Amino acid sequence: MTAKIIDGVAIAAKIRAGCKDRVRALERRSGITPGLAVILVGNDPASALYVRNKIRACADMGIRSLRHDFPVDVDPDAVIETIERLNRDPQVHGILVQLPLPPHFNIARVLRTVSADKDVDGFHLYNVGGLVVGDTVFPPCTPYGVVKLLEHESIALEGKNVVVVGASNIVGKPMALMLMQREATVCICHAKTRDLAQFTILADILVVAAGHPQLILPQMVRTGSVVIDVGINRMPNGRFVGDVDFDGVRQKAAAITPVPGGVGPMTVTMLLINTIASAERTAARRSGRMAAPAVDDEKV
Ligand code: NAP
Q: What is the distance between the alpha carbons of residues 120 and 244, in angstroms, rounded to a whole number?
Protein backbone atom coordinates (compact mmCIF):
# COMPACT_ATOMS: atom_id res chain seq x y z
CA MET A 1 0.00 0.00 0.00
CA THR A 2 1.23 3.52 -0.77
CA ALA A 3 -0.53 6.28 1.10
CA LYS A 4 -2.43 9.12 -0.46
CA ILE A 5 -0.55 12.33 0.35
CA ILE A 6 -2.92 14.82 1.97
CA ASP A 7 -2.16 18.16 0.34
CA GLY A 8 -2.51 20.78 3.07
CA VAL A 9 -1.42 23.57 0.70
CA ALA A 10 -4.26 22.84 -1.74
CA ILE A 11 -6.90 22.43 0.99
CA ALA A 12 -5.74 25.63 2.69
CA ALA A 13 -5.95 27.49 -0.64
CA LYS A 14 -9.55 26.32 -1.13
CA ILE A 15 -10.54 27.48 2.35
CA ARG A 16 -8.73 30.80 1.87
CA ALA A 17 -10.69 31.49 -1.32
CA GLY A 18 -13.83 31.30 0.84
CA CYS A 19 -12.21 33.62 3.40
CA LYS A 20 -11.79 36.37 0.81
CA ASP A 21 -15.48 36.16 -0.05
CA ARG A 22 -16.45 36.38 3.63
CA VAL A 23 -14.26 39.46 4.18
CA ARG A 24 -15.76 41.22 1.14
CA ALA A 25 -19.32 40.32 2.15
CA LEU A 26 -18.74 41.59 5.69
CA GLU A 27 -17.35 44.91 4.43
CA ARG A 28 -20.30 45.33 2.07
CA ARG A 29 -22.87 44.45 4.73
CA SER A 30 -21.50 46.29 7.73
CA GLY A 31 -18.45 48.37 6.74
CA ILE A 32 -16.29 46.27 9.08
CA THR A 33 -12.84 45.09 8.01
CA PRO A 34 -11.53 42.24 10.17
CA GLY A 35 -8.44 43.31 12.16
CA LEU A 36 -5.78 41.10 13.75
CA ALA A 37 -3.15 42.38 16.22
CA VAL A 38 -0.01 40.28 16.52
CA ILE A 39 2.38 40.66 19.45
CA LEU A 40 5.95 39.44 19.10
CA VAL A 41 8.43 39.59 21.98
CA GLY A 42 12.13 39.03 21.29
CA ASN A 43 13.95 38.04 18.14
CA ASP A 44 13.59 34.28 17.85
CA PRO A 45 13.95 33.68 14.07
CA ALA A 46 11.28 30.93 13.94
CA SER A 47 8.73 33.12 15.77
CA ALA A 48 9.58 36.08 13.51
CA LEU A 49 9.03 33.87 10.44
CA TYR A 50 5.65 32.62 11.75
CA VAL A 51 4.56 36.21 12.44
CA ARG A 52 5.61 37.35 8.94
CA ASN A 53 3.64 34.46 7.41
CA LYS A 54 0.54 35.31 9.42
CA ILE A 55 0.72 38.99 8.48
CA ARG A 56 1.23 38.16 4.81
CA ALA A 57 -1.73 35.74 4.88
CA CYS A 58 -3.91 38.49 6.44
CA ALA A 59 -2.92 40.94 3.70
CA ASP A 60 -3.81 38.37 1.01
CA MET A 61 -7.30 37.99 2.50
CA GLY A 62 -7.97 41.71 3.00
CA ILE A 63 -7.67 41.39 6.79
CA ARG A 64 -6.05 44.40 8.45
CA SER A 65 -3.11 43.43 10.65
CA LEU A 66 -1.19 45.42 13.25
CA ARG A 67 2.15 44.15 14.46
CA HIS A 68 3.54 45.04 17.90
CA ASP A 69 7.21 44.16 18.44
CA PHE A 70 8.88 44.23 21.85
CA PRO A 71 12.53 43.67 22.81
CA VAL A 72 13.33 40.39 24.57
CA ASP A 73 13.94 42.14 27.93
CA VAL A 74 10.69 44.14 27.89
CA ASP A 75 8.82 44.58 31.16
CA PRO A 76 5.83 42.18 30.94
CA ASP A 77 3.57 44.98 32.23
CA ALA A 78 4.22 46.92 29.00
CA VAL A 79 2.94 43.96 26.98
CA ILE A 80 -0.06 43.57 29.29
CA GLU A 81 -0.90 47.27 28.84
CA THR A 82 -0.74 46.90 25.06
CA ILE A 83 -3.07 43.90 25.18
CA GLU A 84 -5.52 45.85 27.36
CA ARG A 85 -5.48 48.71 24.87
CA LEU A 86 -6.08 46.30 21.98
CA ASN A 87 -8.96 44.72 23.94
CA ARG A 88 -10.66 48.14 23.89
CA ASP A 89 -9.87 48.91 20.23
CA PRO A 90 -13.04 48.36 18.15
CA GLN A 91 -10.99 47.90 14.98
CA VAL A 92 -9.22 44.88 16.44
CA HIS A 93 -11.17 41.61 16.30
CA GLY A 94 -8.36 39.21 17.07
CA ILE A 95 -5.27 39.39 19.32
CA LEU A 96 -2.48 36.89 18.99
CA VAL A 97 0.54 36.65 21.27
CA GLN A 98 3.25 34.69 19.48
CA LEU A 99 4.57 31.91 21.74
CA PRO A 100 6.95 31.10 23.27
CA LEU A 101 7.51 34.17 25.44
CA PRO A 102 10.85 34.84 27.22
CA PRO A 103 11.30 33.05 30.57
CA HIS A 104 10.58 36.14 32.72
CA PHE A 105 6.98 36.19 31.43
CA ASN A 106 4.08 34.51 33.19
CA ILE A 107 2.45 33.09 30.05
CA ALA A 108 -0.83 32.22 31.79
CA ARG A 109 -1.19 35.87 32.93
CA VAL A 110 -0.58 37.15 29.40
CA LEU A 111 -3.06 34.72 27.83
CA ARG A 112 -5.68 35.56 30.46
CA THR A 113 -5.36 39.26 29.62
CA VAL A 114 -6.46 38.77 26.02
CA SER A 115 -10.21 39.41 25.91
CA ALA A 116 -12.01 36.06 25.50
CA ASP A 117 -13.94 37.40 22.50
CA LYS A 118 -10.72 38.44 20.68
CA ASP A 119 -8.81 35.29 21.61
CA VAL A 120 -8.46 33.94 18.07
CA ASP A 121 -5.77 31.47 19.17
CA GLY A 122 -8.29 29.91 21.57
CA PHE A 123 -5.86 29.82 24.52
CA HIS A 124 -7.86 31.89 27.07
CA LEU A 125 -9.23 29.83 29.97
CA TYR A 126 -12.79 30.72 28.95
CA ASN A 127 -12.25 29.38 25.47
CA VAL A 128 -10.49 26.27 26.75
CA GLY A 129 -13.51 25.68 29.00
CA GLY A 130 -15.84 26.12 26.02
CA LEU A 131 -13.91 23.43 24.20
CA VAL A 132 -14.16 21.06 27.17
CA VAL A 133 -17.96 21.34 27.37
CA GLY A 134 -18.43 21.14 23.60
CA ASP A 135 -19.46 24.78 23.18
CA THR A 136 -16.42 26.01 21.27
CA VAL A 137 -15.90 29.74 20.79
CA PHE A 138 -12.50 29.93 19.08
CA PRO A 139 -11.06 26.50 18.30
CA PRO A 140 -7.24 26.52 18.66
CA CYS A 141 -5.83 26.88 15.16
CA THR A 142 -3.61 23.81 14.75
CA PRO A 143 -6.08 21.15 15.91
CA TYR A 144 -8.85 23.02 14.09
CA GLY A 145 -6.73 22.75 10.94
CA VAL A 146 -6.32 18.99 11.46
CA VAL A 147 -10.09 18.56 11.83
CA LYS A 148 -10.61 20.51 8.59
CA LEU A 149 -7.99 18.44 6.74
CA LEU A 150 -9.81 15.25 7.74
CA GLU A 151 -13.14 16.75 6.79
CA HIS A 152 -11.89 17.80 3.34
CA GLU A 153 -10.53 14.29 2.79
CA SER A 154 -13.95 12.86 3.84
CA ILE A 155 -12.31 10.88 6.63
CA ALA A 156 -15.04 10.14 9.17
CA LEU A 157 -14.22 10.34 12.86
CA GLU A 158 -17.30 8.85 14.47
CA GLY A 159 -16.46 5.62 16.26
CA LYS A 160 -12.84 5.64 15.04
CA ASN A 161 -9.86 4.83 17.26
CA VAL A 162 -7.77 7.97 17.26
CA VAL A 163 -4.43 8.16 19.03
CA VAL A 164 -2.94 11.60 19.71
CA VAL A 165 0.78 11.60 20.51
CA GLY A 166 1.50 14.80 22.44
CA ALA A 167 -0.51 16.37 25.25
CA SER A 168 0.40 20.06 25.10
CA ASN A 169 -2.14 22.78 25.82
CA ILE A 170 -1.86 24.21 22.31
CA VAL A 171 -1.97 21.04 20.22
CA GLY A 172 -2.43 17.63 21.88
CA LYS A 173 -5.10 18.37 24.51
CA PRO A 174 -7.41 20.55 22.36
CA MET A 175 -6.93 18.07 19.51
CA ALA A 176 -8.18 15.25 21.72
CA LEU A 177 -11.18 17.31 22.87
CA MET A 178 -12.19 18.20 19.30
CA LEU A 179 -11.94 14.56 18.26
CA MET A 180 -14.06 13.45 21.23
CA GLN A 181 -16.61 16.09 20.25
CA ARG A 182 -16.80 14.33 16.89
CA GLU A 183 -17.42 11.00 18.59
CA ALA A 184 -14.04 9.39 18.05
CA THR A 185 -12.56 7.14 20.74
CA VAL A 186 -9.47 9.06 21.74
CA CYS A 187 -6.26 7.99 23.46
CA ILE A 188 -3.63 10.62 24.41
CA CYS A 189 0.04 9.62 24.70
CA HIS A 190 2.85 11.75 26.11
CA ALA A 191 6.52 11.59 27.01
CA LYS A 192 5.91 9.27 29.98
CA THR A 193 3.76 6.82 28.00
CA ARG A 194 5.27 3.34 28.32
CA ASP A 195 5.66 1.48 25.03
CA LEU A 196 4.18 4.08 22.69
CA ALA A 197 3.82 1.52 19.90
CA GLN A 198 1.24 -0.55 21.79
CA PHE A 199 -1.09 2.46 21.51
CA THR A 200 -0.19 3.80 18.07
CA ILE A 201 -0.66 0.41 16.42
CA LEU A 202 -4.37 0.50 17.41
CA ALA A 203 -5.03 3.82 15.70
CA ASP A 204 -7.34 4.14 12.74
CA ILE A 205 -6.18 7.75 12.76
CA LEU A 206 -2.86 8.72 14.31
CA VAL A 207 -2.14 12.39 15.08
CA VAL A 208 1.45 13.09 16.11
CA ALA A 209 2.53 16.34 17.79
CA ALA A 210 5.57 15.60 19.94
CA GLY A 211 8.41 17.52 18.29
CA HIS A 212 10.70 14.50 17.76
CA PRO A 213 11.87 13.48 14.30
CA GLN A 214 11.51 9.77 13.49
CA LEU A 215 9.36 9.17 16.59
CA ILE A 216 6.83 7.16 14.59
CA LEU A 217 8.27 4.27 12.59
CA PRO A 218 6.41 1.99 10.15
CA GLN A 219 6.15 -0.91 12.64
CA MET A 220 4.23 1.39 15.02
CA VAL A 221 1.49 2.12 12.49
CA ARG A 222 -1.50 0.02 11.52
CA THR A 223 -1.80 -0.89 7.83
CA GLY A 224 -4.44 1.31 6.19
CA SER A 225 -4.46 3.98 8.90
CA VAL A 226 -4.49 7.75 8.42
CA VAL A 227 -1.39 9.52 9.77
CA ILE A 228 -1.41 13.25 10.52
CA ASP A 229 2.03 14.64 11.30
CA VAL A 230 1.86 17.95 13.18
CA GLY A 231 5.54 18.00 14.18
CA ILE A 232 7.95 20.56 12.75
CA ASN A 233 11.63 19.82 13.38
CA ARG A 234 14.49 21.72 11.83
CA MET A 235 17.35 19.35 11.00
CA PRO A 236 21.05 20.36 11.13
CA ASN A 237 21.04 20.61 7.29
CA GLY A 238 18.25 23.23 7.51
CA ARG A 239 15.56 20.87 6.19
CA PHE A 240 12.21 20.67 8.03
CA VAL A 241 10.80 17.26 8.92
CA GLY A 242 7.87 16.04 10.97
CA ASP A 243 7.71 13.45 13.76
CA VAL A 244 6.90 10.56 11.42
CA ASP A 245 9.26 8.49 9.26
CA PHE A 246 7.42 9.71 6.17
CA ASP A 247 9.07 7.46 3.57
CA GLY A 248 8.61 4.32 5.68
CA VAL A 249 5.11 5.01 7.00
CA ARG A 250 3.70 6.03 3.61
CA GLN A 251 4.25 2.41 2.46
CA LYS A 252 1.78 1.27 5.12
CA ALA A 253 -0.75 4.05 5.72
CA ALA A 254 -3.82 4.82 3.60
CA ALA A 255 -3.23 8.58 3.85
CA ILE A 256 -0.52 10.76 5.34
CA THR A 257 0.30 14.47 5.67
CA PRO A 258 3.75 15.64 4.51
CA VAL A 259 6.00 18.09 6.37
CA PRO A 260 6.14 20.76 5.13
CA GLY A 261 2.88 21.13 3.22
CA GLY A 262 0.46 19.28 5.50
CA VAL A 263 -0.82 20.73 8.77
CA GLY A 264 1.33 23.91 8.69
CA PRO A 265 -0.60 25.83 6.00
CA MET A 266 -3.86 24.90 7.71
CA THR A 267 -2.83 26.45 11.04
CA VAL A 268 -2.46 29.92 9.53
CA THR A 269 -5.67 29.46 7.56
CA MET A 270 -7.67 28.66 10.68
CA LEU A 271 -6.28 31.81 12.33
CA LEU A 272 -7.76 33.78 9.42
CA ILE A 273 -11.08 31.94 9.82
CA ASN A 274 -11.21 32.71 13.56
CA THR A 275 -10.42 36.39 12.94
CA ILE A 276 -13.11 36.71 10.30
CA ALA A 277 -15.62 34.88 12.53
CA SER A 278 -14.82 37.31 15.35
CA ALA A 279 -15.42 40.33 13.10
CA GLU A 280 -18.69 38.76 11.89
CA ARG A 281 -19.83 38.39 15.50
CA THR A 282 -19.03 42.07 16.12
CA ALA A 283 -21.15 43.02 13.11
CA ALA A 284 -24.01 40.82 14.31
CA ARG A 285 -23.87 42.33 17.81
CA ARG A 286 -23.82 45.82 16.38
CA SER A 287 -26.86 45.20 14.23
CA GLY A 288 -28.68 43.66 17.21
CA ARG A 289 -28.94 40.26 15.58
CA MET A 290 -28.16 37.05 17.41
CA ALA A 291 -24.40 36.57 17.58
CA ALA A 292 -23.01 34.87 14.49
CA PRO A 293 -21.33 31.56 15.14
CA ALA A 294 -17.74 32.05 16.25
CA VAL A 295 -16.57 29.32 13.97
CA ASP A 296 -17.38 28.76 10.33
CA ASP A 297 -20.74 27.11 9.96
CA GLU A 298 -19.51 23.62 10.76
CA LYS A 299 -19.32 21.63 13.94
CA VAL A 300 -15.86 21.65 15.54
P1 NAP B 1 5.32 20.75 23.29
O2 NAP B 1 4.62 21.79 24.08
O3 NAP B 1 6.79 20.57 23.42
O4 NAP B 1 4.61 19.36 23.62
C5 NAP B 1 5.09 18.16 23.13
C6 NAP B 1 4.21 17.04 23.62
O7 NAP B 1 4.73 15.81 23.12
C8 NAP B 1 4.21 16.92 25.16
O9 NAP B 1 2.91 16.60 25.59
C10 NAP B 1 5.16 15.77 25.43
O11 NAP B 1 4.83 14.98 26.55
C12 NAP B 1 4.97 14.91 24.18
N13 NAP B 1 6.13 14.10 23.89
C14 NAP B 1 7.42 14.50 23.85
N15 NAP B 1 8.21 13.44 23.57
C16 NAP B 1 7.42 12.38 23.44
C17 NAP B 1 7.65 11.00 23.17
N18 NAP B 1 8.88 10.52 22.99
N19 NAP B 1 6.59 10.19 23.09
C20 NAP B 1 5.35 10.65 23.28
N21 NAP B 1 5.05 11.95 23.54
C22 NAP B 1 6.09 12.79 23.62
O23 NAP B 1 5.08 20.94 21.74
P24 NAP B 1 3.79 21.50 20.93
O25 NAP B 1 3.76 22.96 21.01
O26 NAP B 1 2.58 20.71 21.28
O27 NAP B 1 4.24 21.12 19.45
C28 NAP B 1 4.47 19.77 19.07
C29 NAP B 1 5.10 19.74 17.70
O30 NAP B 1 4.18 20.29 16.77
C31 NAP B 1 6.37 20.58 17.56
O32 NAP B 1 7.22 19.96 16.63
C33 NAP B 1 5.88 21.89 16.99
O34 NAP B 1 6.86 22.57 16.24
C35 NAP B 1 4.77 21.39 16.09
N36 NAP B 1 3.72 22.37 15.83
C37 NAP B 1 3.32 22.47 14.55
C38 NAP B 1 2.32 23.34 14.22
C39 NAP B 1 1.86 23.42 12.80
O40 NAP B 1 1.21 24.36 12.44
N41 NAP B 1 2.18 22.42 11.99
C42 NAP B 1 1.72 24.14 15.21
C43 NAP B 1 2.12 23.99 16.53
C44 NAP B 1 3.13 23.09 16.84
P45 NAP B 1 4.81 15.59 28.05
O46 NAP B 1 3.52 16.37 28.14
O47 NAP B 1 4.79 14.37 28.91
O48 NAP B 1 6.04 16.42 28.18
A: 29
- The pTM of the full predicted model, rounded to 2 decimals, is 0.95
Q: Which of 268, 266, 260, 300 is nearest to 5 (CA)?
A: 260
Going by DSSP bridges, is the β-strand pair 255-256/161-165 parallel, antiparallel, or unpaired? unpaired
State in Å: Cα 172 to ligand 1 middle: 7
Percentage of the residues of the chain whose pLDDT score is greater than 90: 94
Nearest to 23 by CA among 212, 275, 287: 275
Closest CA to 5 of 195, 254, 241, 184: 254
Residue 210 has pLDDT above 70, yes or no: yes
231 C-alpha vs ligand 1 centroid, how far in Å?
7
Say how far residue 95 (Cα) sits from the centre of its chain: 14
Write a three-state SS string for 46-81. HHHHHHHHHHHHHHHHCCEEEEEEECCCCCHHHHHH
Question: Which residue has a Cα nearest atom 36 of ligand 1?
Answer: 231
Ligand 1 pocket by Cβ (under 6 Å): 142, 165-168, 170-172, 189-193, 196, 209-212, 215, 230-233, 263-264, 267
* The predicted structure's pLDDT at residue 290: 57
Cis peptide before 143 (omega within 30 of 0): no
pLDDT digits (tens, 9 = 90+) for 41-74: 999 999 999 999 999 999 999 999 999 999 999 9
